[in-house]
């Protein structure tokens, strides 16, 4: 049991998830909403997972990198961790954590070739909301909890998503729905909403107007058609799609640039797009490879990808069961957990000449790249994309070549 005691001290650093670290007589303490260099009064409130956790009582010396928090839900919602930091400082922190993680794992220095940044607000066009019993209102899971907090608006959301939240939560008796997946399609100005079950009474739909399209499990749902440059995609609100629309073209252009550098303007025979989803990167690969194979475990994602890009072959199979044929390049876009031992082993055995790896977690990336380097791969390029401002996450594009 922790007997709460008051202490004073200086915050020395930020951990991966944005918690400030401060030295106390009882050991290092993790305290949220702090900035390195600040002198604070705090108390230790609990010990869990072998760590001490505390909270700020007062800030005696503020950091110049602290900014006013515009969001009323910041300290209870589990979505953001860094909104109290100046945006340029957030970038600096994430870059340092990324480099530290990889260099510690790889045991050598790394170089970041470029960092892309865009508008740090209103960037999400896709989101998951949770229902609240018994009111039927909607919101996010609380920080460190399992219950849900009602939200008025999210500063990371496109305003069309916030319009939906406002209408839903201002209805007198909204239906209770466990989960709401929403996607605003900037291509046609419509908001697509997938409810985890169909309510008995659907009269509530009339509050949203004709530009809001509701979908339910078991119904025949018309796919969302998204135009990005020359390519037309099909998706659904509940399927994976890049959430930050500012980066759609940036990601595609950077992937294409790396492929051009690999191929030296020569069209190669075959590329594999592992974790292809609805085919976000597949048509980019097809521009430079005679044949492309998309590999995806979601049946509906494969179906939509085939309809969008009939000239590309897509198969439904978990990556762990994929046969991994020979190819000139393998493009990897795994979930946050990374590749894992089984998939890494198959990639290494096939001795693919070139690998492009898109990662949303530098922790899992660090482990995977270490294995690849230990088995003959050379790290060539690293590009970062701050696709998730105000959170600890940063997207990275890694290019490896077999030595």
Q: Which CATH first-tier class of the largest domain would you pick?
A: Alpha Beta
Can you list the strand order of the major beta sheet?
Answer: 6-20-21-19-18-15-16-17
CATH architecture of the largest domain: 3-Layer(aba) Sandwich
From the alpha carbons, calculate the radius of gyration and give it in angstroms. 23 Å
Biggest sheet architecture: 8 strands, mixed
Helix content: 10-25%
Shape: globular
Quickly count the helices: 7
N-to-C SSE string, H for helix and E for strand: EEEEEHEEEEHEEEEEHEHEHEEHEHEE
**Helix/strand structural class:** alpha/beta
The CATH superfamily of the largest domain appears as: Vaccinia Virus protein VP39
Number of strands: 21
* Proportion of residues in β-strands: 25-35%
Low-confidence parts, pLDDT < 50 over ≥5 residues? none
What's the domain count? 3
Distance between the termini: 54 Å
* CATH fold title of the largest domain: Rossmann fold
Q: What's the overall average pLDDT, rounded?
A: 94
